[in-house]
Amino acid sequence: MEAAQQVMERLALFGRHRGGEGLHAALAARFLSKGATFQALQLSVAPLAEARSFAVQAPASAPLPALPADLQALPETAASLRCISSAAALVTSRLPADARDALQDEALRSVEDLVASVQSLGHGPSEVAALSALASACASRGDVPRDAARAAARAVKVARTLQGKEALMSALETVISTSFAQKDADEALHAASELSALARDAGDRRAQARAVLAMARAQLASEEPKAASEAAQEAAELFKVAGDKGGQASALAVAYDVEVLLGKPAAAASRAREVLTLVRGNKQAEAVASLMLGSVDTASQDSLGACREACELFKGLGNRLGEAAALVATANAQLCQGAQSAEAGLASAQAALAIFRELASGHGEAAALAAAGAAHSLKGDAGEAEKAVKESLELFRGARDPVGESFATTLLKSVKAAGRGSKVAKLTIDEAHGLAHIELTDGASPASLKDIVARLQATAAAKCIVLHVEGAPPPGEPEHGTAMPRAYGTFLMGLRMIALPIICAITGKISGPMWTFVLACDYRFAATSTVFICPIWGKLECMGDLVGHNSATQLCLARGPKDSLVMLENGVVHQLQRGPEDTKKAASEMAKRIAATPAMACRKQPFVLNRAVGEYAMSAAYGKVVA
After folding, report:
1. Confidence at residue 237, expressed as pLDDT on a 0 to 100 scale
2. SS3 assignment, position 82
3. Distance of alpha carbon 236 from alpha carbon 352, whole angstroms
4. β pairing state of 560-563 and 531-534
5. What is the mean pLDDT of each run of 10 residues along the chain (627 residues)?
6. Residues in contact with 564: Cβ distance below 8 Å, sequence separation at least 6, in sequence order
7. How far apart are CA 34 and CA 26, in angstroms?
8. CA nearest 7: which of 493, 412, 550?
9. Cβ neighbour number for residue 454 with a 10 Å cutoff
10. Non-local CB neighbours of 519 within 8 Å, separated by 6+ positions
């Protein structure tokens, strides 16, 4: 249980520095794809992005400008007005997916008819509006992004030929929205910059604020946090001057995303509180703002309270997707409270999983499974934890989501590390022969090592220690960090206090801090199958005294695995045995002879008391050497 806490420490770190894996929905974050962990779960709640905008997005389709009286009287114009009205309604429809798809198809056909009708009228502003509507309709479909871009570009081209700037500003807003839909942040930024200049010259503060906000989102998507932060602040001020609280909240939401990306949870929480204050009275917006607040600094009670509030608000609104997203955020916050909240965290994650499965949300299901895996790990159930996280990883891979896949892969490594860390070092006292058998595997928990030292200090029966060292590094490069080196160094200092000769039986793969136990022993046996990963780990100044200067030079410069024969030639091990059982048996027999012979040199002056061993152990215990 104690070792499984490693996963929770990592989750708490995410909560403090990565925004609780970012369980909010941000429009700009849809375009980020370079591995920031906080983005992974945003994709599961993408439909909430519209709510995150707090009603300040550019219109889904541009309004038809006022027409001359002679054109208004034409039947084609009346038909066009009806088409564009129905198209706007259908494009922004919130009906179920199947019905919405059918209506969007109808909208697309209507707008295409509209474009043909307006072009026949020869009225430029109307053509701009019709092309903008066509671009919005194509963008809403999602499967025709190039058509959306072409229509928006045609709208801008026509608008540039007209007198006045209103049509061009409208067309540029369409370019911005379609560029975001295509994940083209550069094009969105270019259009937003031009729109900002036009709106400023025209004295239209709201349009300028929308343009600057679009610039902030595009800069965030391009991972330019400083520029994005400055633009978001400017947009917030413009909206404030215009008296638009919704717009101000939307700009502050982008500033919040920037703080999350920069790993500043306190600043992000402050932004979320500002947003929450601005949107009071709008339950949907309050729910999203509460979810934003609950997604940062997840180790705090304030975060947990905000997550629960968001969950209740979404539930009251009948928003099942939002409720599920808030439940995942609640689960992460509960897990960061420690082992006492593991059961509650698992319950929240499973409740979210049930909703996401009901809604057929693959990304949401993957996010909920990841939270459930972390909860199982905290409870000490490594098998269930690994199973849940692997299932999450497969779902992200099936959705071709590199960000989610990266997140799940990182979590899987953490869960596996916690499983390894849950191993316990064991001590067996053989009073008949005066031996203390210590079974130690890679990743043994610090608590079990401490307990062994205390038990050895309390017994007078042991005359010699048999150290059974089984190396088992994680797949790929070992990742020991600083926790294990400190624990192993402290344990070795404890063995120095006991001052007994140590015979070592070495099996498995020895790497990183596991070298600590190999180098501190009086006599070393190794199985022929044992592999040693070079370079030797530890303080370099001590190596000459521990294994000899020539061998130390070779083994410190070497890279990669070395077999036991090489170690025998270099004097690192003294004897090889055929397999693990023979190795342990030979070490035990040697230890029996030493325990029965007080006159032996290693009984009078064990190697563990060597000055070099002490210096080596101290450097590890104080964290001066890391894996």
Report:
1. 93
2. helix
3. 34
4. antiparallel
5. 37 32 26 28 37 45 45 50 47 46 59 66 72 71 67 84 82 85 86 92 90 91 89 93 89 88 83 90 87 78 86 89 87 79 89 90 85 82 85 86 78 71 81 93 83 91 94 52 75 92 94 88 94 89 89 89 92 93 95 94 92 90 69
6. 526, 527, 528, 529, 530, 531, 532, 573, 576
7. 16
8. 412
9. 11
10. 536, 538, 546, 547, 613, 616
In angstroms and rounded to an integer, the radius of gyration of the C-alpha atoms of the chain is 33
Distance, in Å, from the CA atom of 142 to the CA atom of 199, rounded to the nearest integer, reads 29
Residue with tokens 């799940």: 408
State the pLDDT at residue 40.
32
DSSP bridge partners of 575: 525
Residue 132 belongs to what H/E stretch?
helix 124-141
* Secondary structure class of 623 (helix, strand, coil): coil
Are the C-beta atoms of residues 41 and 22 closer than 8 Å to each other?
yes
What is the reported pLDDT for 215? 93
Q: Which residues, 6 or more positions from 348, have their beta carbon under 8 angstroms from its beta carbon?
A: 327, 328, 330, 331, 334, 371
Tokens of 292: 């934003």
Cβ burial of 78 (10 Å; 0-12, 13-18, 19+) is exposed
CA dihedral in degrees (220, 223, 227, 229; nearest 10)? 50
* Residue 48 structure tokens: 């909430």
Total-model pTM: 0.59
Residue 327 to residue 606: CA distance in whole angstroms: 58
Each residue's pLDDT tens digit, 547-587: 889 999 988 988 889 999 999 999 999 999 999 999 999 99
Are 270 and 2 a contacting pair, CB within 8 Å? no
d(CA 405, CA 395): 8
Amino acid at 292: M
CB count within 10 Å of CB 152 equals: 30
CA distance 284 to 111: 31
Q: Kindly report the length of the chain.
A: 627
The DSSP symbol for 65 reads P
478 in helix, strand or coil? coil
| β-bridge mates for residue 304, sequence order | none
Read off φ and ψ for residue 151, nearest 5 degrees.
Answer: -65, -40
> What was the pLDDT predicted at 483?
61
Q: Could you give the CA distance from residue 134 to residue 151 in angstroms, rounded to a whole number?
A: 6
For residues 481 and 485, give the distance between their C-alpha atoms in angstroms, rounded to a whole number.
Answer: 8
C-alpha distances in Å from residue 335, one per residue of 367, 387, 498: 15, 18, 40
pLDDT attached to residue 239: 92
How far are the Cα atoms of 82, 112, 129, 162, 443 from residue 132, in angstroms, in the given order? 16, 11, 5, 15, 61
CA 277-282-283 angle, to 5 degrees, is 105
Residues 196, 416: Cα–Cα separation, whole Å: 51
Contact in structure between 21 and 407 (CB atoms under 8 Å): yes
CB distance 42 to 27 below 8 Å:
no
Residue 510, beta-bridge partner list: 532
Contact 58, 177 (CB under 8 A): yes
pLDDT of residue 447: 81
Enter the DSSP assignment of 477: S
For 168, 169, 360, the CA distances from 81, given in Å and listed in that order, are 20, 21, 38
- 373 and 389 in contact (C-beta within 8 Å)? yes
pLDDT (0 to 100) of residue 482: 53
pLDDT of residue 32: 26
Output the pLDDT for position 595. 94
